[in-house]
């Protein structure tokens, strides 16, 4: 478990980040980092990082929760019991990545009900922006999570490699994290 901001402890906000990138680190990974860093400026945070690309065959070959490798099941439980979730995916064919959805499919019904969730996504251009509202938001609404109204999307032009070059993205992230803090 990694931490951001103040040292982790009994009063730390338990945050699970779900990275749907197939090849991290990616722009989506950088958005998750930016969100955790901003949240850590306001509250002590202890973070459980979940990268679907790194979960391995004990995840990808599982068809039921019982078939998950113990380490993957531990990550899933950390996701289900987090105080808040920050979930992100790159846009793949107009939606979230398949492994991102595969992970979410294992979430127990009601496990993240009323959990505050901040959504982030990255895509090649601003044309992919609506994926958050048309794909991610309904997915977490079906899980009965409290989704922050402001989400953050970044396009390829917002980064030079993995270096953020658009300061407007920082302002959008600050606003989205402020919404997450209100839900907490």
Query: Which H/E pattern describes the elements?
Result: EEHEHHEHEHEEEEH
Specify Rg, calculated over alpha carbons. 15 Å
Q: What's the domain count? A: 1
How many strands appear in the DSSP assignment? 9
User: And the CATH topology?
Assistant: Rossmann fold
Strand composition percent? 15-25%
The CATH class: Alpha Beta
Sheet with most strands? 7 strands, mixed
C-alpha geometry? globular
Task: Provide an overview of this structure.
- There is one protein chain.
- The chain is α/β, with parallel strands linked by helices and 184 residues long.
- The chain has 6 helices and 9 strands; from the N terminus they run ββαβααβαβαββββα.
- The strands form 2 sheets. Strands 1, 2, 3, 4, 5, 6 and 7 form a 7-stranded mixed β-sheet that branches. Strands 8-9 form a two-stranded antiparallel ribbon.
- Strand 4, helix 4 (98-105) and strand 5 form a beta-alpha-beta unit.
- The longest helix is centred in the C-terminal third of the chain and has 17 residues, at 167-183.
């Amino acid at each position: 478990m990694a931490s951001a901001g103040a040292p982790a402890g009994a009063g730390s906000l338990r945050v699970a980040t779900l990275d749907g990138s197939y090849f991290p680190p990616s722009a989506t990974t950088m958005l998750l980092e930016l969100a955790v860093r901003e949240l850590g400026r306001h509250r002590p945070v202890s973070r459980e990082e979940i990268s679907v690309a790194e979960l391995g065959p004990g995840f990808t070959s599982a068809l039921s929760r019982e078939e998950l490798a113990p380490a993957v099941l531990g990550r899933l439980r950390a996701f289900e019991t987090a105080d808040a979730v920050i979930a992100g995916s790159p846009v793949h064919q107009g939606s979230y990545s398949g492994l991102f959805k595969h992970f979410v499919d294992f979430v127990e019904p009601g496990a993240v009900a009323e959990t505050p969730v901040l959504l982030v996504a990255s895509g090649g251009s601003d044309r992919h922006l609506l994926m958050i509202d048309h794909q991610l938001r309904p997915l977490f609404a079906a899980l009965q999570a409290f989704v922050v109204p402001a989400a953050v999307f970044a396009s390829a032009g917002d980064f030079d490699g993995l270096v953020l070059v658009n300061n407007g993205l920082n302002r959008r992230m600050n606003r989205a994290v402020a919404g997450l803090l209100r839900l907490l």
